[in-house]
Sequence to fold (420 residues):
Amino acid sequence: MIDVKTLRENPDLVRASQKARGESASLVDEVLAADEVRRSAIVEFEALRAEQNTLSKSVGAAKGDEKSALLERAKTLSTQVKEAESKKSATEEAFKKLALGISNLVDERAPVGGEADFKVIEEIGKPRNFDFEAKDHVELGKILGAIDVERGAKVSGARFYYLTGVGALLELALVNYAIQMATKAGFIPVIPPVLVKPEAMEGTGFLGQAAENVFHLEADDFYLVGTSEVPLAAYHMDEILDSSKLPLRYSGYSPCFRREAGSYGKDTRGIIRVHQFEKVEMFSFCKPEDAAAEHLRLLNWEKEFLNAMEIPYRVIDVATGDLGSSANRKFDCEAWIPTQGAYREVTSTSNCSDFQARRLNIRIKGENGTSPVATLNGTLVAVPRMIVAILENHQQSDGSVLVPKALQPYLGTDQFTPVS
RNA sequence: GGAGGGCUCGCAUAGUGGCCUAGUGCACCGGUCUUGAAAACCGGCAAGGGAAACCUUCGUGGGUUCAAAUCCCACGCCCUCCGCCA
Fold:
């Protein structure tokens, strides 16, 4: 949630941010109006309540006629208080509903524009020149006995898959390598719940613009998380953190579930876009003034991982119109996918500043009271897309695939060979 | 799923309708004393809104009442036991 003080004192800043995102700037004025109404309702209620409190006290002390007179007055006051209270909560709710619709203030350094207006920050590694016809990951997966999309579709439908044999082993190797790397860097490994309550989903900002991509279990009112960012962010919900212990870094390993609504026809082949996958996610709680630096650290760990996979990739600064509602800035790492002749997003890191924390009520105790903490997240490895990148980039003409050095200790081999 | 016990400001506890706008102990912070420390003593010490007065919060949500931590109803979570179960 946006800071109400910023909104009141500097509405132009918020309007500009909304505009840069391609979202409603007039919402700012609606929220300000609702805030006025809310504040006057609070003042009215509190005045009546204070009067009731003092009157109530005198009732206890009074006797006889005096008492019945006071009681008379107290009764009418009581109904007034009740009315004022329900008016107050109604206006507060209306305000909150509107205020939640405003996205985080974009970082002024983020490139302004739509999805295509990203800025390339750097390109690392060079796409290989193949002296044979490169096979795509579906074909390689079949040859190696690693990926079975046909049976995935038979059992669960489109966008589901089985990882088998070396495919399954590769997932375990990637996860182990990622967790070990994160642990070395000081992250606390976490295996979180993946069914969460509406508050957790709402607090992390996934029930807004991203709501249609979230699986919901109606019978029990649970949500299936699309990323462990959700349970990791909500881990400290309603808590006050010790600022001397920051940054607090967690690496979550969990399945991720995505409905992929509105992506019909996109990436229908293979395992680039699927409903269920495993991911190791970095999550950091830090002081707001350290957030930008922490963001770069998360990006560096992502780069370190991709470097270890020996995959050519580029880093982009995502444009304002393509940021999630909680993020003020986002960097994507895009791996080169030979058979598509394109860079495709494999990992992504977002700086959510104090936006999520305000919704989730996570604070730091400081000199001048408490204030919201900053939260950041970044992908260390999203398994299927990394498998795609590894298989396609490291394939040989005979369909075998060289295993990156970093993964060899986890797999006990330096290459995957076709199964007969 | 069934039976019982519990949920109060970091922790532990007091509190069965108005001197509870919540007491006490521990922990913590500051001070006095001390060569230094400990002890002792003094003061501070939940959160949110507000310039302040003040208001809100005793698991959550309703209700009764002029007035609710306290009475009633529902729900949540934790603990113990029973049943089922990876």
